Amino acid sequence: MYQSRIAGLGMYVPENVVTNEDLTKVMETSHDWIVERTGIHERRHIEKGDGNTTAIMGVKAAKTAIERAEINKDDIDLILFATLSPDYYFPGSGVLVQEALEIENCPAMDIRNQCSGFIYALSTADQFIKTGMYNNILVIGSENHSGGLEMSTRGRGVSVIFGDGAGAAILIRSDDSSRGILSTHLHAQGEFAEELSLIGPSTNRWVPEIIAANDPEDTSYYPYMNGQLVFKNAVVRFSEVIMEGLKQNELTQDQIDLLVPHQANLRISQFIQKKFGLTDDQVYNNIQRYGNTTAGSIPIALTEAWQEGKVQPGDLVVLAAFGSGFTWGSAIIRW
Ligand code: UT7
After folding, report:
1. What is residue 42's three-state secondary structure?
2. Are 109 and 138 contacting, i.e. CB atoms less than 8 angstroms apart?
3. Number of folded domains in the chain?
4. Which among 143, 265, 328 is the best mutation to test ligand 1's pocket, defined by most ligand atoms within 8 Å of the CB?
5. 86, CA 20 to 30 Å: which among 55, 108, 113, 136?
């Protein structure tokens, strides 16, 4: 069995900053409500004409990760692209990245696991490396939420939370078995599929049918979230899946150097921090500045943590996510 490790990280967020105050101009909300319930102060939204798409943001993050990993882009054996907001219904955004990076014929695969998308992608990459099939894998998490949010009072329960952005990691084969991804843990519970979802348009109800119905009450083409149910499940599943990872590696919570949770809600991160007895320095949060960027959130946060020197060789780094599906997962990494 081979070992995999993260050799380079990168991120990209659009320049356009949307503050809570900006949102009050298009919906009934307030800075205080948003900060109190979520911790978010501002997020980034793609601006028409700025050239960004889900894939393009992923490419920008990937270029930084490739540079930092000090590999040649032509040595990438596989691209894994996690998103819930792909450029097209099909094909996936992974092939667009492959084309933009001009990597000849390397396979590209999209992963559809929303907030857990990056952990699912990282785990998939880890398996491909551990079995010896591939040496260098580009893993991207990227979202263009702003293109699909309902920016009105009706949509405020969802639209104040989500932001755009991308993060990327290069996973490489390593001979040092004491470092790298120690284990990953994935779960799903499809009975709650519709509790955080975008149902239409779908193959059950395609665009012409929606247009023909001309129903102003139809919100099926906007994201729906049963916020309180998601919150309650998130705090339980985050805790469980972190414990599962620690236990498998015979580690204890006091050995965690840095926890990078999916940036769903600052209150969720704070709950987990308290539960695991971690200090502010041991939990990395940037939801205040970017909102919830779903598949982008962990690689963006991990990149910033690394850039700030908060991830050092030998550190025990724990990643954990929960979201739509429901799906959840964790990764235990010895940096
Ligand atoms: O990354 C995927 C995972 N997602 C999550 O983990 C999200 C988990 N859930 C949450 O973070 C919280 O449920 C929210 C932040 C989404 C909402 O907070 P909440 O405390 O659960 O609020 P609520 O949905 O129960 O709404 C409370 C009130 C309602 O008004 P009434 O019915 O009490 O009069 C809402 O209409 O707040 C109202 N409201 C808002 N008010 C101002 C909902 N959204 C807004 C808003 N601004 N943006």
Report:
1. strand
2. no
3. 2
4. 265
5. 136
